[in-house]
Design a protein that fits this description.
It contains ten helices and eight strands. By secondary structure, it is α/β, with parallel strands linked by helices.
């Protein structure tokens, strides 16, 4: 483990980031709305950056939600990457997302579609998030061959990167599968009060003291926020129980010290049950979504590896 990572982890632990996830539903939603009120993306500034770096940035909407497209050329490339940011389905993208989307476009020669999907802090439930994300992928298949599309998601976006295609299977497979899925720190929000979920709950708690960012308690709160009183398909809440039939090559990245690593075994079972070609990559001693960051060696190496897989 690099010294830079150890120092960063110490600072994160000292700042008490995990305390946010111990708040009740109302307080977490209030926190999320406050965070979402902060400006994180200025299109005019981003457009000037694109012009300075000699690429194209397009801004449009899908079902009323913003969709950015990073392109090296004015006309679409032969392939594309659907980028799904993280944030627990309640907070907007962060400042690491946009440079990474740009880097993927530059290094893969593929277009990158960056979707600002519906957040469950906006008084919508997660089925709306699925609806908009699924429609975005459908639009991609009108421009690119499905086998030339890669899907990359982080955290809640990682759940969507898998969930879109569980949803596709639930709908009777109206769309072709993408060429590749890369899912970074996916998890689930199962009903942990049920006896059959006791083991996963114990595994989550077993990693609690190693995780510098997430508290297992949030699993219960997140389920309440994303589901509300609606009767939603369980795969929209816990992707490990979905139908993975005909999934493409799938890569799952976990930090060895994140509590969501508890779900790795469940995804392994699902992938093997449905005979999905997959690989689980574990960053020893690493935190949640460690490939997002480039300032420490382990994150930088994992990010470069992911970009290479997307080429």
């Amino acid at each position: 483990m690099s010294l830079t990572y150890k120092m960063a982890a110490t600072i994160v632990r000292f700042l008490g980031v995990k305390k946010i996830f111990l708040k009740n539903k109302e307080d977490i939603l209030a926190y999320a709305r406050k965070e979402n009120a902060k400006p994180v993306f200025d299109f005019e500034k981003a457009l000037k950056r694109a012009q300075r770096k000699n690429y194209y940035l397009f801004d449009r909407e899908v079902m009323g939600y913003r969709l950015l497209s990073y392109q090296k050329n004015q006309s679409p490339a032969d392939g594309a990457v659907l980028y799904l940011f993280g944030g627990g389905m309640i907070t907007q993208p962060n400042q690491l997302d946009f440079p990474l989307a740009e880097r993927i476009m530059e290094e893969t020669d593929k277009d990158v579609w960056f979707l600002f999907y519906p957040l469950c802090s906006e008084d919508v439930k997660v089925d709306k998030t699925y609806e908009v994300s699924f429609e975005t992928y459908r639009l991609m298949t009108e421009t690119y061959k499905a086998e030339n599309i890669g899907v990359l998601g982080f955290s809640s976006g990682a759940c969507l990167s898998l969930g879109i295609f569980l949803h596709n299977n639930a709908l009777g497979r109206p769309l072709p599968m993408p060429g590749k899925i890369i899912s970074v720190s996916p998890g689930g929000i199962p009903d942990v009060t049920l006896h059959e979920n006791r083991e996963i709950w114990e595994k989550l708690h077993g990693l609690k003291h190693k995780d510098i960012m997430i508290e297992p308690t949030y699993i219960k709160t997140a389920r309440e926020i994303l589901r509300g009183d609606e009767d939603l398909p369980e795969y929209m809440l816990d992707g490990t129980v979905g139908d993975f039939t005909d999934f493409p090559e799938t890569f799952l990245y976990f930090g060895g010290n994140e509590c969501l690593y508890a779900f790795a075994g469940e995804f392994k079972k699902a992938m093997e049950t449905y005979r999905v070609p997959y690989e689980i990559i574990v960053g020893k001693g690493m935190c949640h979504c460690y490939p997002m960051a480039r300032f420490f060696r382990e994150g930088r190496e994992a990010q470069d590896e992911i970009i290479e897989r997307l080429k």
